[in-house]
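Entry:
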Amino acid sequence: MKLRRAELHDAPALVERWAEMFAEIGAAPADAAVRRGFAGYLARKLPAEDFAAWVVVESDRVLATASLILYEIPGRPEVTCEGYVINVYTVPSARGRGLGRKLMEALLAHARTLPLRKLWLRTAPRAEALYGRLGFAARPELMELDLSRS
């Protein structure tokens, strides 16, 4: 099993894990047009500096993913950027092996090298404890990690 930064060739697997995640949480299904849209987004963003994704791969299959979107805060000189964590997902057959934690540790290590003040994410209730152990605090509708304090 290998944890690494996602590359362009991982985009199809990232799209599939994303679609599986949304199907699992009961969101609108990812039809062909939505999948193409996300694939286009990944083609633009995987090489960009304001996006990063990680995968856990075993036997050439992507078992788990996590991504980070960076965005500038306009008009606030004390804050340069914040980050939004998306698409943290592990396929059901690989759960319980600590893959989500490993992905998040890699994502957080990367985030701490950047001029970020805070990270945000939305999560399913079953994952709140994981993010809490990593230092995220519950806020209405989101969880937040203040990197200036961790």
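The chain has one domain: 2-146.
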